[in-house]
Design goal:
With 349 residues, this protein is α/β, with parallel strands linked by helices. The chain folds into 2 domains: 2-154 and 296-345, Quinone Oxidoreductase, Chain A, domain 1, CATH 3.90.180.10; 159-291, NAD(P)-binding Rossmann-like Domain (Rossmann fold, 3-Layer(aba) Sandwich), CATH 3.40.50. Helices cover 29% and strands 26% of the residues. Strands 3, 5, 6, 9, 10, 17 and 18 form a 7-stranded mixed sheet that branches. Strands 13-12-11-14-15-16 form a 6-stranded parallel sheet, sandwiched between helices. Helix 8 links the parallel strand 12 (197-202) and strand 13 (218-221). Helix 5 packs antiparallel against helix 12 (300-308). The longest helix is centred in the middle third of the chain and has 12 residues, at 155-166. The protein binds zinc ion (ZN). Zinc ion is lined by residues 89-90, 92-93, 95-96, 104-107.
Length: 349
């Protein structure tokens, strides 16, 4: 089969790799219909994540059809249409039972040296019953809703996790830092929870326009040196909930500076180079820090219901469609920010 392979910074190639096969009776082999390129895929692409070796498989957002089902599967069978969270999990251990599927004692992540990546024609899925979630036929056969279903594997569920962890509820004041796909999806989640005021912080006009369409009430240029003060003034002391969706020291500091006393900052951007928090400010103002790595499996069903009903349209963040062979161009477009997020069209439903 064909799949995207990481060969080094700015060197992604689509090449022939071994076909996956069932290894355990709890496995499934999924034929990938659509995959996406994630902002976090850019960390190895840009050479910032240095633990990637040449030959690693890449991609962790995909939906598809069960091609082969292991003998022990009880939930899924050949032909079922499924979404795969960005990590696999057994759904039987204590961490899974606590809803922290990303810490599953037997779980793991797609891609790398040992697992198939999502950006390829097929993926062997360990613990398929514990990992996969069903996609209703009405979603799978509607191109727009199918794109939204794809976002539930990571960015929409991750943005939602940020809002859950930041305690967003009806009437909340919320600031979302970052105008990438996760930040934009956090705005959808905050709007869905009937937050009263939603500040979108970013610096890319087209993305901030989408933020407005998703429900942001206030747009703030994150590069404006007075950005924090403007939000503090507009809210008489800061917002109750911050969702930080970038993962840098500067954005984390900005987030802490705009939380009102008693509020919460939830960070869902993969942190790179974040080494300090303003502990004195957190202490003095009773600010909570929450996170982090989203157990997306926990949210897929709930959010899928809203996709079915047409209440949310997170698929709108997928602004470029390419065939699998175009994957290297997709990375390039996301790297230079000429597109928000890439959807790969790999096979028919
Ligand atoms: Zn587990």
């Amino acid at each position: 089969m064909k799949a995207a392979v990481y060969h080094g910074p700015r060197d992604i190639r689509v090449e022939t790799v071994p076909d996956p096969a069932l290894q355990r009776p709890t496995d499934a082999v999924v034929r990938v219909v659509n995959a996406a390129i994630c902002g976090s895929d850019l960390w190895p692409y840009r050479g910032i994540a240095t633990n990637w070796t040449a030959g690693s498989r890449i991609g962790h957002e995909f939906i598809g059809v069960v091609e082969e089902a292991g003998a022990d599967l009880r939930t899924f069978k050949r032909g079922d249409i499924v979404a795969a969270p960005f990590s696999y999990s057994d759904n039987t251990c204590d961490y899974c039972h606590a809803g922290i599927y990303t810490s599953c004692r037997h779980g793991g992540f797609w891609g790398g040296a040992d697992e198939d990546g999502g950006q390829g024609q097929f993926v062997r899925v360990p613990f398929a019953d514990g990992t996969l979630r069903p996609i209703p036929a009405a979603v799978a056969h509607d191109e727009k809703k199918r794109a939204s279903a794809l976002t539930l594997t990571d960015v929409m569920s991750t943005g939602h996790h940020g809002c859950v962890r930041a305690g967003v509820k009806a009437g909340s004041s919320v600031a979302v830092i970052g105008d990438g796909a996760v930040g934009l999806c956090a705005i959808i989640s905050a709007h869905r929870s009937n937050a009263a005021r939603i500040f979108a912080l970013g610096h890319h006009a087209a993305r901030l326009e989408l933020a407005r369409a998703f429900g942001a009430t206030d747009i703030v240029d994150s590069k404006d040196p007075d950005a924090a003060q403007k939000i503090i003034d507009a809210t008489d002391g800061g917002v109750a909930c911050v969702v930080e969706a970038v993962g840098s020291q500067a954005t984390m500091d900005l987030g802490v500076s705009i939380v009102r006393p008693g509020g919460t900052l939830a960070y869902v951007g993969v942190p790179y180079g974040v080494s300090t928090f303003n502990a004195r400010k957190l202490f003095s103002d009773n600010i909570s820090i929450a996170g982090a790595l989203a157990p997306t499996r926990a949210y897929i069903d709930e959010l899928m219901t809203d996709v079915v009903l047409g209440k949310i349209d997170p698929g709108a963040v997928l602004t470029l469609r390419l065939p699998l062979e175009g994957t290297p161009d997709g990375y390039k477009a996301m790297d230079d920010r000429s597109t928000i997020k890439v959807l790969l069209e790999i096979s028919a439903v």
